[in-house]
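I have been asked to look over a protein record a colleague put together. This is what I was given:
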Amino acid sequence: METRLTAALVIIPARLAATRLPRKPLADICGKPMIVRVLEQAQNADIGPVAVACDDKNIFDAVKDHDGQAVMTRVDHASGSDRIHEAVGLVDPDGKFEVVLNVQGDVPLIAPEAIRAAFAPLTVSEVQIGTIMTEFTNPDFRDDPNFVKAVTTPNGEGHHRALYFTRALAPSGDGPHNHHIGIYAYRRSALARFVALPPSPLEIREKLEQLRALEAGMRIDVSVIDSAPMDVNTPEDLERARAAYRTS
């Protein structure tokens, strides 16, 4: 059954600590901090208000200095989902928004249409979480356990239903393999349920938080996008992001 959705509350979790790229959210990309670049792309998706959920006043101030909305959250959250859940209560305590969209804070080149694509599966009322994937074109990435694979089947509604997520190469046999991109649209009730669940056995084994939802019987559907946005985890990634902005 389809329902019409028109808006979501977009939350970007950002924490200052990062082992491979210190102070990552504040890294300069052609005159603006990376977190501000992500904020702008999320605003360009035009599906609702955008706020940064941060754990450090330097991030808070950087967002505010560029006229963005930011909220301070606890420093001890175990995951971005927990941080988002706290932020939703701060930004929208009255529950105006039924859907919460989580955009990672290290994807300064994320296309607005990719953000909207994560929101799209929730037009099917039985879907509790929406996300996105793209087909692997580089066999090195496909075989790399750092690139998560989505095992899915068409849902008959223009998207795919997630059956499993894994760091292994799956499914076996001939055919394409799909790269899962960690942007999620949650029904608010699903987010509350998700963060209340303990880490699940497969989640712990694969180190993939979304498996907690699947193991609990929650339905995740996936939109297909044309290409994966580059995330920034290393100084080399940062230089590539800067180069992309200089030529855009």
Notes: The longest helix spans residues 235-247. The chain has a mean pLDDT of 95.
